[in-house]
Amino acid sequence: MDGEAKFSCVGKISGVHGLRGWLKIKSFTEPEQNVFEYTPWRVKLQGQWQELEVERAQPHKGGWIARIVGVDDRTAAEAYKLIDIYVDQNQFAALEEGEFYWHELVGMRVQAEQDGGENPLDIGVVKQLLETGANDVLVIQADASSVDNKERLIPYVPDVYVKDVDLETRVLVVSWDLSWDADD
Fold it and tell me: Quick one: which of 121, 127, 89, 124 has its CA closest to 107?
């Protein structure tokens, strides 16, 4: 990155646990405990960004709970319920060639190959990715530049459906026949 901090959402404070200020944490990282490797956390509380330091974290009933420095009781913890957790992207590990973080794909233009790769059609923008267990799925949202006004769900399977990801031009090329999602 160019030195300027960019932030990504890596989890959510989903609730409180007990009377001593513990918070329930929903991690969006893989593996889940990696959410605690990134510090400090940034949260938007009452319209203002603030940094949080995790004092302690532990697994609890299939999820995670954490104590935040300065949050010592349930009343203080309640203020953080349902708040997204952001971290500086500069902390993310470098990836292998051809691997991408989800935040890098969101917002990319998506073009569908036609005629053996000639004349690609603009089908929208990556709105989000879904984890389904078998494959991650790209949610493509149509916009004013799109060939039609359809939302599409395309499996993120490199070399099968995803043919090219160009981070520089912010274009993702897919092999996708538009008739596959016709409204018949």
Answer: 127
Instruction: Name the phi and psi angles at 115, rounded to 5.
Output: 50, 50
Task: Please give the chain's pLDDT, 184 residues, in tens.
Answer: 345 678 999 999 999 999 999 999 999 888 899 999 999 999 999 999 999 999 999 999 989 999 999 999 999 999 999 999 999 998 998 888 888 888 899 999 999 997 666 778 999 999 999 888 788 899 999 999 888 999 999 999 999 999 999 999 999 999 998 888 765 4
**β-bridge mates for residue 62, sequence order:** none
Per the CB < 8 A criterion, the answer to whether 110 and 56 are in contact is no
Distance CA 45, CA 122 (A): 38
Do the Cβ atoms of 108 and 126 come closer than 8 Å? yes
| Tally of helices (H runs) and strands (E runs) in the chain | 2, 13
How far is it between the farthest Cα atoms of the chain?
Answer: 63
Domains of the chain: 7-90 (2.40.30.60), 102-178 (2.30.30.240)
Q: What's the CA gap between 22 and 54, in Å, rounded? A: 10
